[in-house]
């Protein structure tokens, strides 16, 4: 069942922040910090699991498995990136049913051709507006839980400009999308225009190093966004920390740098205490010593 907290937050009208999660280590750290919602990012879950680019290479089955694992690991409700729905209308229907059964709280579709490209990289190609409208209608019809939020993303800014992108998102809204996702906007002015002209809650994609500026969350709230996702933050921060530690190891032989995360605490976060409790209860008694 979808967690109703996402709809409740949208209805409250109060801006909120959603971190991106690239693997289950990030998921347990997010559990420690405490978030109500997390974002299952297609780009970074693909990169962490298979070392592959976000270019439609990972399959529906692989990505559903990753999302299901994230739902199991995370204490928060999961917003799931479902790319294009992995094909045509029947694929979208199947994806909604599968992701919903996996326990996600929201599912996000985009208007690119299949296979897709990362929204902040070149060579994106769009499907016709009418085809995406049909995908949204199928997604709405396929869900069995009304708490499941359907998010419609448009990548049209690069090829059709702001007017074309807004026209598409208006159509997706009429088709029944709950949240609108104007991707890869290039300025705060464009962000303000999107939030002002669209009639459904809008989300901001704060992709570090991408096409869009990354202002403080207070600015995004003032602009009018309902919420913001930060899909690349934990991944890029982790890359920086890992490179620094590995260079220090290679150059200086330092295997225990300052500030390293406590191993015993991580054991607790990942669930070893439950394993130890099980062993205490069920492990056979040691053989007597003669």
From TrEMBL:
Q: Which domain of life is it from?
A: Bacteria
The record ties this protein, via InterPro entries, to: ICL/PEPM, Pyrv/PenolPyrv_kinase-like_dom, Pyrv_kinase-like_dom_sf
A GO molecular function held by the record = oxo-acid-lyase activity
Protein name (record):
Carboxyvinyl-carboxyphosphonate phosphorylmutase
Q: Which residues cross the membrane?
A: none
| Gene3D superfamilies with a match to the protein in the record | Phosphoenolpyruvate-binding domains (3.20.20.60)
Q: What residue stretch is flagged as signal peptide? A: none
**Which organism is this protein's natural source?**
Novosphingobium barchaimii LL02
């Amino acid at each position: 069942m979808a967690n109703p907290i996402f709809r409740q937050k949208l209805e409250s009208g109060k801006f909120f922040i959603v971190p991106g999660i690239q693997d289950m280590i990030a998921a347990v750290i997010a559990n420690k910090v405490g978030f109500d919602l997390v974002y299952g990012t297609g780009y970074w879950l693909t990169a962490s699991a298979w070392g592959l680019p976000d270019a439609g290479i990972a399959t529906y089955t692989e990505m559903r498995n990753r999302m299901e694992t994230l739902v199991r690991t995370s204490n928060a409700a999961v917003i799931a990136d479902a790319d294009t729905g992995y094909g045509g209308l029947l694929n979208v229907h199947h994806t909604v049913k599968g992701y919903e059964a996996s326990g996600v709280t929201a599912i996000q579709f985009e208007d690119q051709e299949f296979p897709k490209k990362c929204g902040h990289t070149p060579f994106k190609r769009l499907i016709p507006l009418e085809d995406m409208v049909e995908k949204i209608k199928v997604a709405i019809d396929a869900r069995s839980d009304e708490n499941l939020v359907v998010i419609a993303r448009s990548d049209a800014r690069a090829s059709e400009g702001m007017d074309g992108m807004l026209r598409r998102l208006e159509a997706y809204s009429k088709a029944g999308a709950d949240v609108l996702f104007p991707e890869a906007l290039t300025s705060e002015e464009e962000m303000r225009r999107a939030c002002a002209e669209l009639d459904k809650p809008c989300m901001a994609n704060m992709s570090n190093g991408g096409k869009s500026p990354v202002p403080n969350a207070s600015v995004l709230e003032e602009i009018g966004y309902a919420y913001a996702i930060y899909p690349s933050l934990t991944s890029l921060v982790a890359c920086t920390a890992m490179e620094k530690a590995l260079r220090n190891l290679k150059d200086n032989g330092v295997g225990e740098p300052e500030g390293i995360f406590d191993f015993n605490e991580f054991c607790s976060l990942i669930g070893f205490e439950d394993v130890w409790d099980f062993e205490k209860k069920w492990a056979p008694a040691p053989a007597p010593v003669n």
